[in-house]
Prior knowledge:
The structure is a single chain. This protein has 199 residues and is of the alpha+beta class. It folds into 2 domains: 2-121, 2-Layer Sandwich (Ribosomal Protein S5, domain 2); 126-198, Alpha-Beta Plaits, CATH 3.30.70.240. Helices cover 32% and strands 40% of the residues. It has 5 helices and 10 strands. Strands 1, 7, 8, 9 and 10 form a 5-stranded antiparallel sheet that branches. A 5-stranded antiparallel sheet has the order 2-3-6-4-5, sandwiched between helices. Strand 2 and strand 3 (18-26) form a beta hairpin. It is elongated, with a radius of gyration of 22 Å. The model has no long low-confidence stretch (mean pLDDT 86).
Amino acid sequence: MFRSIDKNAVAEIIEKKSKFIANVYPANNKDEAENILKQIRQRYHDAKHNSYAYIVENIEKCSDDGEPSGTAGAPLLDILKNNNLNNVIIVVTRYFGGILLGTGGLVRAYTEAAKKALESTKIIEKEYGIRYWIEISYSNLKEIQYICKQLKIEIVNLEYKENVIVTLESNKLKKERLENSKINIIEKGITSKEIIIKV
């Protein structure tokens, strides 16, 4: 179980005519974090700096993106660490306003923008879970629904074809309980992939 955010958010501050735009996003893996960073760089392609920090699957990375060393990326990373956040990326874009802020001023501005963006989202508990698919006959649908209700496993989709494809999300422990409970009614087996779910 870990702390993350429920949705992306944006906040903006002005400091001595420089504009700081902070974007925070949940990111489930490093590739997703890097893709978010790429999109933000494209969105603000005319900005001088897109400083960032992320902690994703306990991997830490940050960059000052041309700002003086330690004035942008490291303070953003500290915000993530101080809030015990994981699977989150913060990118703060700066449009230079012509007035130098100094190292202390830059740290304060980047920190303030990032904190303001985090305040616009919600910190939640998440855990590693599983999304899986069960193919069953129509006659067994009610039984699967009953089992899922008893085990507090969420049915996120039902697809009606020749058989019913049931999409479920749960933690790994509940998946094992499902497989061990009424495995005889599962006619085509279970396929699954690991995901991250809200607690």
